[in-house]
Design brief:
Elements (H helix, E strand, L loop, with lengths): L12 H12 L8 H19 L9 H19 L3
């Protein structure tokens, strides 16, 4: 058994047809809960490093915005590093 992860435009009719054919042939859709929870845990650890630990892990919208802005900026700057 092999696992394939796809990123696609759900509005594309050709892709939907291909997926339907694969499902008809016996492929199954599997939700990978481990990956989702580990990503959430990683983000929580990063929030805690940046803003400190909070009761019930509640962070303000402004703190989340700052964290996401810095994370996205780092990705952009990585492209231009030499």
């Amino acid at each position: 058994m092999a696992t394939i992860t796809l990123t696609y435009d759900a509005r594309n009719s050709q892709i939907r047809q291909l997926i339907d054919v694969m499902l008809t042939a016996g492929a199954k859709i599997v939700e990978n809960q481990e990956k989702m929870t580990s990503e959430k845990d990683e983000v929580l650890v990063e929030y805690q490093k940046m803003f400190g630990k909070r009761k019930n892990n509640k962070y303000t919208e402004n703190e989340i915005f700052v964290y996401n802005s810095q994370r996205n900026l780092a990705k952009i700057l990585e492209r231009y590093e030499d």
